[in-house]
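Input:
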Amino acid sequence: DGGITQSPKYLFRKEGQNVTLSCEQNLNHDAMYWYRQDPGQGLRLIYYSQIVNDFQKGDIAEGYSVSREKKESFPLTVTSAQKNPTAFYLCASSSFREGLNEQFFGPGTRLTVL
Amino acid sequence: QKEVEQNSGPLSVPEGAIASLNCTYSDRVSQSFFWYRQYSGKSPELIMSIYSNGDKEDGRFTAQLNKASQYVSLLIRDSQPSDSATYLCAVNRETNAGKSTFGDGTTLTVKP
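Output:
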């Protein structure tokens, strides 16, 4: 059963804490992405990785960090430097084979700062 | 100007009608185009991809691409209440690599 999993589904954080969101895929996709979605708005790219041990900043990378040590995993850390982290976080992956780069999304993690 | 612009909506159509969703993009070298459906509180789901000018049909959905005019549209025929969702347009500069840029979405409501 292939797909993308994200955990936890809901996460509550106190101000000043770092938290890590998990994203795992078993689709054998090369690229993985993290997006943030605020209520009533579109997706904003935080970080993306097209190959293991390499990643690039997206449009809103400040206050976030990532790693890509394995092809299957792309965890996102929301640091205390992120001033307004309450949002819906979405992980996606895509394959570049056969000229396709369609992205497939995980179920998301809702982060709330208390 | 945003890189990808969509009608802000909301768009409301009666059940059985055709819903038309539009998207324009600013980067003339864009190569690949996608439509995603997002139900409230859920993650986006890919429903159509299109790479060359013209129409692409899949069931009740038709994607239309016009690179000269830099727009891509999605038509939903015989709209059903279950089609009520936010539709996101995404554009990629490359065919086999790179990141996509998303529009803010158009919310569609299909009234029974």
